[in-house]
């Protein structure tokens, strides 16, 4: 639980590195995270959970095996559990993620793009 | 689960009435809702869940019994489970709510401000 007000833009300003989710708030056993994205991530899925993306700025393409989902600012998309996806940021993208606590960014594939959830200062 | 892209502003444009939450997306057994607020709501609490507010536009004051929490655009606040609160919108406020499916807007008090979750067209 976050016990006070957090601002999305201030939080994103405090994030220096790409692909490093930071916790904005928690509700029950879910986390709301802010993240900066640039370039392409890795193909992965989350067998146990859906994953929600809300784009704050920039254009995010969520590549699915059968189509590309293009997200512009204020667009929301939910990747269903078990569905392989590979986010690709066109320029720099600022986004909010909503998912259960403990959800790992690289899902079922792991590897060197795996990043622990970080706390904002 | 919402199976395609939803835009926050388009969704809010489709909402005509105040205090009527509409489902923007679902993730697992949680809903992301958009809502327009104006004036003061009723004092209530949610004994079984935290409730997250993200302000899109306007200024929302979440009155707690011991203080007022003032939220401006892009501010996030989580009302902990069981904590009495009474939202008050200064002018019209557009907001996003995250909470478990089945969470009732008036929580433990019910009454004529209770509104079912509505679907966007």
TrEMBL record, chains A, B:
InterPro entries the record matches: Cupin_2, PKS_Associated_Protein, RmlC-like_jellyroll, RmlC_Cupin_sf
UniProt cross-references to CDD domains, sorted A to Z: cupin_YdbB-like
Domain Cupin type-2: 38-96
Domain of life the protein comes from: Bacteria
SUPFAM superfamilies per record: RmlC-like cupins
Name of the protein described by the UniProt record: Cupin domain protein
UniProt source species: Microbacterium azadirachtae
């Amino acid at each position: 639980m976050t016990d006070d007000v957090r601002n999305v833009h201030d939080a994103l300003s405090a994030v220096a590195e790409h692909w490093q989710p930071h916790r904005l708030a928690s509700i029950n056993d879910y986390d709301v995270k802010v993240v900066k994205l640039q370039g392409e991530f890795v193909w992965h899925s989350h067998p146990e959970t859906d994953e929600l993306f809300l784009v704050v700025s920039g254009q995010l393409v969520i590549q699915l095996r059968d189509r590309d989902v293009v997200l512009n600012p204020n667009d929301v998309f939910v990747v269903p559990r078990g569905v392989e996806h590979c986010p690709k940021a066109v320029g720099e993208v600022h986004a909010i993620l909503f998912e259960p606590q403990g959800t790992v960014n690289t899902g079922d594939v792991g590897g060197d793009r795996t990043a622990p959830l970080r706390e904002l200062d």
